[in-house]
Design a protein that fits this description.
two-stranded antiparallel sheet; single chain; globular; 2% helix
Length: 168
């Protein structure tokens, strides 16, 4: 009935500068990001996640949510989490090809405080996400009565393919 996972990751940057075949003394090594998370399931139908992120000297809450996952077609999530808008934002940094996200990714809402309905209409082929958020971003207080509605529909025609060349 209960399941929990403790995990995290560390991203480091090391920079070495060479100018006219001579090493310049402005090399640097830094912890770019340190993440720690606890996630799991409660009574098989509820999910939770708490993820802390350190960038520099500050510690912030990245994700903190509780969700109901009983049905594949209609699931609910409440708290702070990634909004269902950009595939690039929804993809973990462990699985992107470059060390940084694109500049275009800065234009879309990332983590928001809100409530989301999501699910799969056809398993691994067609799904959706619809979120109502406060529109103030990660850890942003609700300072006004304006709300954002964020939605996404995804379609993967080869989602259930068995071929090794196109398998998910």
């Amino acid at each position: 009935n209960f399941e929990g996972h403790l995990g995290g990751r560390v991203l480091v940057h090391w920079r070495n500068f060479i100018y006219h075949n001579e090493r310049v003394h402005s090399d640097s090594f830094a912890f770019r990001q340190v993440k720690l998370h606890l996630q799991g399931k409660l009574w098989k139908d509820f999910e939770f996640k708490v993820e802390l992120n350190t960038t520099g000297a500050s510690v912030a809450l990245d994700d903190g949510y509780l969700g109901m996952t009983h049905w594949k077609l209609l699931q609910i999530r409440v708290g702070q989490f990634k909004s269902p808008m950009s595939l690039e934002e929804l993809t973990s940094t462990r699985f992107i090809d470059l060390p940084e996200r694109s500049v275009m990714n800065r234009l879309i809402p990332a983590r928001e405080l809100g409530i989301m309905l999501h699910g799969e209409i056809a398993e691994k082929i067609l799904g959706y996400g619809l979120m109502l958020s406060n529109g103030n971003g990660r850890n942003g207080p609700d300072e006004n009565s304006d709300k954002d509605l964020i939605g996404r529909v995804w379609f993967r025609p080869a989602g259930t393919a068995e071929s090794d060349y196109i398998k998910n």
